[in-house]
Specification:
Elements lengths: L16 H6 L7 H20 L11 H24 L9 H41 L5 H19 L3 H15 L10 H29 L17 H20 L7 H17 L8 H67 L1
Subcellular location: Membrane
Pfam families: ROH1-like
Keywords: Membrane, Transmembrane, Transmembrane helix
Length: about 350
């Protein structure tokens, strides 16, 4: 949706954020300050909730679901903020609209990529179910079929998702610039831009973490820096440092995956596979049943986690899409109103 002359603009084509805060000639009224402080306090609380009690919770599907919920709520809060500011779209600066449309289309692309990866993981889950079904019998033929399903799981889960690979380019642009547009004389505009900046930081962070987890690489991980002038900056930095450090430690250890539920499945598969292949002889029935039970529990947790996270990514997609549609609808309504006014003036001139 960006214009031809904006082809080389960064993902968030804004100016210097400090200009927005330190610009002369515009002061925030007590009411505007109250609105902004309330918005940023809510953002800070969301950031604090994302700090896990244990490092083991990082990149579990439950933590990722919570992170996606934070995005949905924060983007919804922006729409509420616009209403509170009584800042109708027809009063928006043209560059704000360009910014919003640029952001929204990229976020929709990212959501589609994430959904495709979650769908791919769900397809792998079907192979695990087939293996578990065959393991309900102790016959050698069923074990052969179970081995085949586990082979399929290993190959499927180890393959690359082209959508995620392409998503890295979007993430690079997303990290590339977090500057804000210059806002002249409009106190409400400055409040809006400062609020949007906080939400963008959260969005960039969460999407970069998801991108790293799904791609199996730290190249998409971003160490965003935020100025201390923002009340929520300390909470963000604590979260960023904790999560990014743990992800890098996991990758450096050569783990199969940094996703907790996938790692649990992989661990059970590796323990079970040599047994049903016949590589390990004289395994007690009780031990085999125990390992199969662990795989079944890990598979169920994987399925449940995938379902919950998929719903939240879908919800985020819907929040972004409806916000974009509302903006475009308001723009069309505004244009139609302007045409009507111009038409009425023309009629009056003709009568005169």
């Amino acid at each position: 949706m960006s214009r031809p002359h904006d082809a080389h603009r960064s993902f968030f084509p804004f100016g210097n954020p400090f200009k927005m805060i330190s610009s002369k000639g515009t002061k925030f009224s007590p009411q505007l300050l109250e609105i902004l402080h309330a918005f940023e306090a809510t953002l800070e609380e969301r950031l604090k909730k994302l700090v896990p009690e244990s490092k083991d919770e990082i990149l579990s599907f439950s933590w990722m679901t919570l992170a996606m919920q934070a995005l949905c709520e924060s983007h919804s809060d922006i729409k509420t903020l616009i209403t509170e500011l009584e800042l109708p779209v027809h009063d928006w600066d043209e560059k704000w609209i360009d910014v919003y449309l640029d952001i929204s289309v990229k976020l929709l692309d990212i959501c589609i990529a994430f959904c495709s990866e979650l769908s791919r993981l769900n397809q792998g889950h079907l192979l695990l179910q087939c293996a578990l079904h065959n393991l309900e019998s102790s016959s050698s033929d069923q074990f052969v079929r179970a081995c085949s399903s586990l082979d399929g799981w290993n190959q499927h889960i180890g393959s690359k998702n082209p959508r995620i690979e392409k998503c890295s380019c979007i993430l690079d642009n997303l990290v590339g610039s977090l500057d804000l547009p210059k806002v002249k004389k409009s106190a409400k505009g400055k409040v809006l831009m400062q609020a949007i900046y906080g939400v963008k930081v959260l969005t960039v962070f969460v999407c970069s973490v998801f991108g790293a987890a799904f791609s199996g690489s730290t190249k998409n991980l971003s160490d965003l820096d935020v100025a201390d002038i923002y009340s929520w900056a300390p909470s963000f930095k604590s979260l960023r440092d904790l999560v990014n450090e743990e992800i890098r430690v996991r990758f450096s250890s050569g783990r199969f995956t940094v996703l907790k539920e996938l790692e649990a499945v992989d661990s059970s598969v590796k323990e079970l596979y040599p047994i049903i292949q016949g590589v390990v002889d004289n395994v007690e029935t009780g031990i085999l049943l125990k390992i199969v039970g662990e795989l079944r529990r890990a598979t169920e947790q994987l399925s449940q986690g995938l379902d919950l996270l998929t719903k939240e990514v879908d919800s985020f997609f819907h929040v972004v899409l409806t916000g974009r549609d509302a903006l475009l609808s308001n723009l069309r309504s505004g244009a139609a109103g302007s045409d009507l006014i111009r038409g009425s003036n023309g009629d009056a001139q003709a009568v005169n």
